């Protein structure tokens, strides 16, 4: 009995520990229990995803591509193609890119038996959107298996809104969201124009029309023969005059990604609203919505928005507005209506929010908006999952937003009514979230479209958020006081910075190896070891927690050769910023314990000294530190990175022939001069053929000329007859920006020396870099940030959020700096509160050095484009509010510079300012 009692106590303790991290619905999990895992990157306009068996995810891309992501092999492969329309052609014959294409995909509930998938797309020939079924076998689409299920007639003269999201209920009914397919009015309000020839500007003909499938969420039951039946409970019973029985909900502008709560059967989706930033003569400002349908219903558009706020009647003959529509008695009297006149009772929005602050739902934030949607979490859906999310999220609706990038958990009561909301992993930001759902393994997947419209973005990707309910491995940090030197060499090791989120007791073991053979071990968070013999060693630190979970990291030590030391000086007052000096005197000195010095033993031609320009948006230190050779230019590293990130590398290799010539062969054919550079830049952008054989060179019309020039400069640098000459140990450098660069980048002076090594010891390369940055800096480049938000899908807009939010720049030389100017572009649409800016040095909590004038909530704006002769940069500055911070002379020298944003009346969620630029002026 004694042992049985002990065992029971142990089991109870174990269950208590388990419930504390997984089963207690009142315990919010720590953010560090979630791990972001990237599964795919560089997709071509990803639209929607669906989960296949065997850890595979199928993604559809707008232009018609299917991509299959295999989580097991970590590979992304083409899985088929669907011909689709991607263009609008207006009455005048002008063609432009359309929102439509391949818009949605979903797996059949019985996919393991029938291999069926459903896709929604824009027909390539006829103006219609099509729901069709295919077989998907052996990881590829079976083209000839296609069966058309349903068609939605559309117009493709004008933008916008397609819908295309799909989901299933437990009875095998398919839900499909369909957009309004209507012009966006310039007013940013509702679409009510009944004038002849303007039918595409009247949403009464579609979302408000019971006899049209557009602006709806449809519910059908697909049958095995490719037809469908109508389930019970749709909005209009079969046979109802002037109605379509497929309609489950109507009155939508652009319903997006739908989901079903598996417990309640309630339907949820995101709804993209109109653009108006304020109330006006037409009625209310625009709102986006996150909606819930407990049953079939009408959701108000185009007569109502938000919590049933009515628009005003519109007179199409004279363009005037009249009285407001009656939310309790909506009648569709449009000449374009082919359905019933008296509309069903309108359901108000579940959640709604404008561009500015939302008094009802302040956590939604402000600025650009585009509601996506997301899943309702039920643990019962993941009984055998590897990593189900914790019970804290049971019954919560997890929503995401294309423009604002957050994930919010919405709590509801037992009736499905709203209770509260909170951000999930608030430090994370997703770039254009197109779709979000839980996979079979319990992980939450987010499909990101990326930053720019209508192109394959480098930052488009598929990621998942894994939840770890159990013991977490230690996070290991390891360092040494030196990493090379003469023997005997005593090195001190430190595990400082190692953490364990569970607070476990940690043990540290250091293993020293040479050529894969263990030479010795030492223990402790800090330890020392003496290397008696020359050689290149690997030191590995393994940290073990009290649950026996381990993690490790390693670094190298070279014994028997001391790394050289390099001093690099510029004769210049301010060592951080470039202020337009035409000439900069420099001097380089090298000393090496084994080789001597530049004064005795080391010749000038053994030291690589380069002066280079790195364009804005690239880290000059990173570029300078990643050279293929000691004398390579940092700007060439930029060009190489661009090539490796493009599709060029699929046809061209750096020094071997592929489908096309190697880059080295190109550099040898074309001497490095301005004429050849312009020729090759044109070929990169516009394509070409006939020079190297029968294979034509693909065009890259979306590539801007500056990036193409950077790529070509790298290619031309590869010529065997060329090379980068060293500048010598002293002299004068002349900062000259390449003619194709427009933004202000950085100048990099770099000195590098690789010593001669020794017997059995590798040579050591040492470098020293001086970076002169532009004094005009972006807030995104700040090393320190608190309570800021970057809206990547809205032009990378950078906001300070809440009182005492801040940004900080590390190790800035303030010598000669007279003031710091912060350029701010607040707008009525973003709902910013304004405030003041404070200058602090070395700590955001230190003394206030300077305080700016009060910044208004709205920056007066001029025309959208600068007048002739005015640069876009100067035009932005002229149309910005300016916070001026004076820098006293006694602040000279290097400091961490903090800009703290103040408004004591602001809440923690209020946007204070949209930061555009920070300028350090010497005038």
TrEMBL record:
Domain PKD: 474-559
SUPFAM superfamilies xref list: Cytochrome c, PKD domain, Soluble quinoprotein glucose dehydrogenase
Sequence ranges of Basic and acidic residues compositional bias: 196-205
Residue numbers binding heme c: 648, 652, 697
Keywords: Electron transport, Heme, Iron, Metal-binding, Signal, Transport
Domain of life: Bacteria
Keyword check for Metal-binding: yes
Protein name: PKD domain-containing protein
């Amino acid at each position: 009995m004694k042992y049985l009692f002990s065992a029971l106590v142990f089991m109870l303790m174990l269950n208590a520990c388990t419930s504390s991290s997984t089963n207690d619905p009142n315990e919010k999990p720590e953010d560090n229990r979630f791990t972001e895992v990237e599964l795919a990157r560089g997709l071509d306009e990803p639209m929607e995803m669906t989960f296949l068996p065997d850890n595979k995810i199928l993604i559809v891309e707008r232009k018609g591509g299917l991509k299959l992501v295999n989580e097991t092999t970590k590979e992304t492969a083409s899985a088929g193609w669907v011909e689709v329309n991607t263009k609008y052609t207006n009455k005048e014959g002008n063609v432009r890119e359309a929102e439509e294409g391949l818009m949605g995909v979903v797996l059949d509930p019985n996919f393991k038996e029938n291999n069926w998938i459903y896709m929604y797309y824009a027909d390539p020939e006829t103006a219609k959107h099509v729901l069709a079924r295919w077989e998907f076998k052996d990881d590829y689409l079976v083209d000839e298996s296609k069966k058309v299920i349903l068609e939605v007639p559309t117009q493709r003269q004008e933008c916008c809104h397609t819908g295309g999201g799909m989901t299933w209920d437990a009875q095998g009914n398919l839900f499909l969201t369909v957009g309004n397919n209507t012009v966006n009015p310039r007013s940013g309000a509702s679409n009510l124009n009944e004038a002849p020839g303007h039918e595409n500007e009247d949403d009464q003909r579609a979302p408000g029309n019971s006899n049209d499938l557009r602006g709806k969420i449809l519910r059908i039951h697909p049958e095995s023969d490719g037809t469908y039946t109508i389930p019970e409970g749709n909005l209009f019973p079969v046979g109802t005059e002037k109605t379509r029985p497929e309609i489950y909900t109507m009155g939508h502008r652009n319903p997006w990604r739908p989901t079903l709560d598996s417990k309640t059967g309630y339907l949820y989706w995101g709804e993209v609203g109109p653009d108006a930033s304020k109330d006006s003569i037409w009625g209310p400002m625009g709102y986006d919505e996150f909606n819930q349908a407990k049953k079939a219903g009408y959701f108000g558009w185009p007569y109502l928005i938000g919590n049933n706020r009515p628009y005003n009647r519109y007179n199409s003959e004279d363009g005037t507005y009249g009285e407001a529509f009656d939310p309790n008695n909506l009648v569709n009297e449009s000449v374009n209506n082919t359905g019933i006149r008296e509309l069903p009772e309108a359901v108000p929005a579940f959640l709604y929010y404008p561009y500015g602050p939302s008094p009802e739902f302040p956590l939604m934030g402000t600025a650009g908006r585009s509601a996506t949607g997301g899943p309702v979490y039920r643990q019962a859906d993941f009984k055998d999952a590897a990593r189900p999310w914790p019970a804290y999220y049971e019954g919560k609706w997890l929503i995401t937003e294309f423009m604002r990038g957050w994930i919010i958990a919405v709590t509801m009561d037992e009736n499905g009514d709203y209770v509260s909301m909170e951000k999930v992993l608030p430090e994370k930001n997703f770039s254009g979230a197109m779709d979000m759902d839980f996979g079979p393994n319990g992980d939450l997947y987010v499909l990101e479209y990326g930053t720019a419209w209508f192109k394959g973005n480098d930052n488009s990707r598929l990621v998942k958020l894994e939840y770890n309910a159990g013991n977490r491995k230690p996070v290991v940090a390891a360092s040494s006081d030196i990493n090379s030197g003469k023997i005997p060499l005593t090195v001190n090791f430190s595990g400082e910075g190692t953490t364990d989120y569970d607070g476990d007791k940690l043990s540290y073991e250091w293993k020293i190896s040479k050529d894969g053979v263990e030479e010795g071990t030492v223990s402790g968070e800090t330890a020392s070891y003496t290397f008696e013999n020359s050689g290149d060693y690997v030191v590995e630190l393994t940290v073990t927690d009290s649950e026996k979970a381990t993690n490790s990291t390693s670094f190298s030590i070279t014994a028997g050769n001391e790394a050289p030391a390099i001093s690099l000086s510029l004769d210049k007052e301010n060592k951080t910023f470039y202020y337009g000096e035409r000439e900069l005197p420099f001097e380089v000195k090298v000393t090496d314990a084994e080789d001597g010095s530049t004064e005795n033993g080391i010749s000038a031609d053994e030291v690589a000294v380069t002066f280079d320009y790195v364009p804005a948006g690239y880290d000059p230190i990173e570029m300078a530190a990643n050279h293929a050779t000691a004398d390579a230019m940092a700007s060439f590293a930029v060009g190489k990175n661009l090539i490796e990130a493009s599709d060029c590398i699929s046809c061209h290799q750096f020094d071997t022939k592929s489908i096309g010539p190697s880059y080295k062969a190109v550099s040898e054919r074309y001497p490095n001069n301005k004429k050849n550079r312009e020729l090759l830049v044109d070929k990169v952008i516009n394509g070409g053929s006939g020079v190297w054989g029968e294979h034509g060179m693909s065009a890259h019309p979306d590539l801007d000329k500056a990036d193409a020039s950077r790529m070509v400069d790298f290619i031309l640098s590869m010529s065997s007859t060329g090379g980068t000459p060293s500048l010598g140990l002293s002299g004068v450098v002349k900062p000259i920006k390449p003619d194709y660069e427009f933004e202000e980048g950085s100048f990099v002076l770099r000195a590098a020396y690789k010593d001669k090594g020794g017997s059995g010891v590798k040579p050591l390369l040492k470098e020293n870099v001086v970076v002169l940055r532009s004094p005009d800096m972006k807030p995104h480049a700040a090393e320190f940030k608190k309570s800021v938000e970057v809206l990547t899908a809205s032009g990378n807009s950078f906001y300070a959020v809440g009182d005492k939010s801040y940004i900080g720049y590390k190790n800035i030389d303030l010598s000669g700096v007279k003031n710091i100017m912060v350029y701010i572009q607040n707008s009525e649409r973003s709902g910013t509160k304004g405030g003041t800016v404070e200058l602090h040095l070395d700590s955001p909590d230190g003394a206030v050095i300077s305080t700016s004038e009060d910044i208004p909530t709205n920056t007066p704006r001029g025309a959208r484009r600068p007048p002739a002769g005015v640069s876009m940069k100067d035009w932005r500055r002229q149309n910005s509010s300016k916070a001026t911070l004076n820098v006293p002379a006694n602040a000279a020298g290097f400091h961490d510079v903090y800009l703290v944003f103040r408004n004591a009346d602001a809440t923690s969620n209020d946007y204070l300012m949209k930061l555009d630029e920070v300028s350090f002026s010497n005038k």
